[in-house]
Amino acid sequence: MxxxxxxxxxxxxxxxxxxxxxxxxxETSILLxxxxxxxxxxxxxxxxxxxxxxxxxxxxxxxxxxxxxxxSGITIIEEHGLYGFALGSGSAMLHVHNxxxxxxxxxxxIKK
Length: 112
Hints:
This protein has 2 helices and 6 strands; from the N terminus they run αβββββαβ. It is mostly beta strands.
């Protein structure tokens, strides 16, 4: 979780950035791609996060992801041996389950 917290801190929880895609890699694995953009909206860097052993999820079509409000960034938490990812700012799994897009998994890996 230290690596995840460092990433969230480095990029200010991805506030004002963009989720580029969310896709199933296998039946139990989801790859989420976030992009860091400059002031002109040009992509500077991509961060891939792979969630495996998915327990629950609510995914949105990739075509609506650029329209998502990212002013509150993202949340990634660990609670009871599970990782929760959600849009917006939160500190508990309750927030994760109430988000418009969320993923709950047993494992998480950052891939650059």
